[in-house]
Amino acid sequence: MTSQNYRYRAGAATDVGLRRELNEDSLLVMDDLFAVADGMGGHDAGEVASSSCVQALREMRQDMIAADPPQHMDLEALRSMIGSANTSVLVAGQGRAGTTLTMLAGIRHDDPAGEHALAVANIGDSRAYWYQAAADQMVQITEDHSAVQELVNRGIITAEEARTHPDRNVITRAVGTSPHIAADVAVLRPEPGDRFLLCSDGLTNEVSDDDLAWAISSSDDLDAIAHDLVDQANEAGGRDNITVIIVEILS
């Protein structure tokens, strides 16, 4: 099934990194729904939180596809999915765990025309980037919900200083930490050939934006790009779990 006239292909990779014993990241790759979740909470609680989050998203989208007629995604449905995922994490984590969430979804927008578009939603500090093929440039779509990002926004530290700041892992918003959670949502209309990078901070804390921008267009093999980025993060220290999804717009 394609979503709203877009078609996609994707590559993905995830790795525990060099310093952690357990991979608490989870990822989701479906026909028109892609997500990265980076769990937190200590011991195996982070793994439970992230896996519960993506499983809830998967099941809801599968139910929509299986409906007669199949249900298209719109912004209301997207926000409902995030709310259900939040409830699932609250229950599974028993209030002691949470997870970031960054997702890309094909949607129908501006009804009644039903114009096709993409939506990027995020909570926490897992990121989404958009490589615009015609301009050969990459932009960061999401803004981290983190203590250091607030310092950057206030002009107290620079973005480069944030990469090594001692509070860089302090998250100000996460799935499963409150009965009600708000996601930032951006609606986009990419062109064929454009690519999206979804990733956990285990990648962005180790690999510069310039290197990400070069890598995202370096090959036609999206899985190879994802695995290469994981390797780069590990070569730079691998201090956290690393998860990468590359999505290309086909038409």
UniProtKB/TrEMBL annotation:
Q: Which PROSITE patterns match?
A: PPM_2
**Superkingdom classification of source:** Bacteria
**Which InterPro entries does the UniProt record give?**
PP2C (IPR015655), PPM-type-like_dom_sf (IPR036457), PPM-type_phosphatase-like_dom (IPR001932)
SUPFAM superfamilies, from UniProt? PP2C-like
Which parts of the sequence belong to the PPM-type phosphatase domain?
9-249
Pfam families linked: PP2C_2 (PF13672)
PANTHER family (UniProt xref) = PROTEIN PHOSPHATASE
Give the protein's recorded name.
Answer: Protein phosphatase 2C domain-containing protein
- Species assigned in the record: Citricoccus muralis
